[in-house]
Amino acid sequence: MRGLGVLAACLLFGTVTAQPPLIAILQSGEGSFYADAVQRFHQTLEQQGIAAQTLAFSLKGDRTDKDLPRRVLERKPSLIFAVGTDAARLIKDHYANLPPSQRVPVVFALVIDPIEQGLIQSVERSGTRFAGVALTLRPQRQFQALRDVAAQASRVGVIYNPSDRASQRLLAWAREDAGRVGLSLVEAHAAEPKQLSNALQTLEGKVDALWLVPDPVCAGAEPFQQILRWAQAQRIPIVAFAERFVRDGALMGVGVDFAEQGALAAEQAIQILQGEEPETLPLLAPRRVLIYYNLQTARTLGVAIHETLLNLARKVYDP
Predict the structure, then answer these.
(1) CA within 20 to 30 Å of 26's CA: 11, 68, 89, 160, which one?
(2) Under a CB-based contact definition with an 8 Å cutoff, are residues 222 and 286 in contact?
(3) Which pLDDT tens digit goes with each residue over 77-136?
């Protein structure tokens, strides 16, 4: 009885506080671009006064991934933050076998074409238990930036996993966009990192530049180093999609602000935690594009980057 009396007194005087919501974070893999989005997600929640508990999970790229959504839902989160296309699709596939009452709201970021992926129904209104931010930078923006600094490059090579749906969609855009800026796209396939050597060999002597895409097969730390060594030996530039590749030796990077993706996702997470239904929320798009250059690589390749372009860059590396 004493316990009930204490509880009643706490309720009367307002000393019992609600348990902070639990947010489960499911990443498509490891990597700085995922980490940047997650870190800004946390920061934005804190800045808006949202005290939430978080649990983090990452896909490993093996058969254990299929069980991750079940493990996540066992923790009874109030919301799931899906970082990357693979993570969001994994949850979507799992939800197909669940009754609507068990489908926890999902906010996604770093997802290529979420409508095509079947995550949401339209830009204006999600219509599903998913809401979030699209990774909508068209390859044309990267191709044009390459032409601005390496006008002589006309054949651009790309390596990707033909079984990866996100890469398939990106390549469909790239085939359209390359012609718009006077480039021809030379494609090579690698379903796993150990196939990179053969893929690079098929491109040898056939390309003037290499376009790096956010496909796990080639964007991981070790695969990229292999690609970078090959490009250096061939004396061709790499146009990447994120800062870290430029820091490591790519000529340039053109991409969305991955941290901003996390901030925008947090805005929608807050709306959902405050009572909005994800079905009613619109798809958010990146608000800015960031460009990076590596001047040491430029000098090695004999590429002159105009000062105007350097002044517009987010960061210029000159080690």
Answers:
(1) 160
(2) no
(3) 999 999 999 999 999 999 999 999 999 999 999 998 899 889 999 999 999 999 999 987
Per the listing, tokens 């929320």 go with 281
Within 10 Å of residue 311's Cβ, how many Cβ atoms?
Answer: 8
The predicted model scores a pTM of 0.76
Domain ranges of the chain: 14-135+258-287, 139-256+290-317
Judge whether residue 9 has pLDDT over 70.
no
Instruction: Please say whether the beta carbons of 277 and 242 come within 8 A.
Output: no
Considering the domain 139-256+290-317 in this protein, what is its CATH number?
3.40.50.2300
Third-level CATH fold of 14-135+258-287: Rossmann fold (3.40.50)
